[in-house]
Amino acid sequence: MVSHLRAYRIYLLSLNQCANSHHHNQPPKKRSAPSSGPAPKRARQSKLAKENDISASEENEIKETVEEFADQKEGVIPRGDVRKALVALGLDPTDSEELHSIIEAVDPTDTGYVPYEPFLAVAAAKLRSRSDDAMAAEVDAAYRLFTRGSGGVITLNHLRRIARELKEEELGDEL
């Protein structure tokens, strides 16, 4: 079952990916006259994200997950929490062999901790290897959580309910 937070993240990522895929298929837009207000800041892709061929939002999701699982040391995940972190990202290892090889790759010296960069590299590789069908199934599951299976469009009430359930008070006020 997809958690509400995971569903919200999946939905936001799917919107970002849809926007990015449509952007590549359209001709360049003409620049309009500069507006009087400041332009909203867009997350820039870091060097690490570029090296691993992931978007800034995907990198941010991975970073947030590492921060959630980091306990004693900043920026590292205890070796025993690698599977949980991957599951939280929706990147479940297929079997114990894959999990073992991932752990060997991210903690080759058996320190008991996995630094951010190797974890990001593994998570990015798993993100890139997901099939379109698997991603569509995740988006569908997230959509059903938003609409509680009622179908139709996601309404403002759906968004407010999800914001309340996630305790995203700031987001609820913006809606």
Automatic annotation (TrEMBL):
SUPFAM superfamilies: EF-hand
Region entry Disordered, spans: 20-61
Keyword terms of this UniProt record: Repeat
Compositional bias annotation for Basic residues: 21-32
Keyword Glycoprotein: no
Keyword Lipid biosynthesis in record: no
GO cellular component annotations of the record: myosin II complex
Protein name as catalogued: Calmodulin
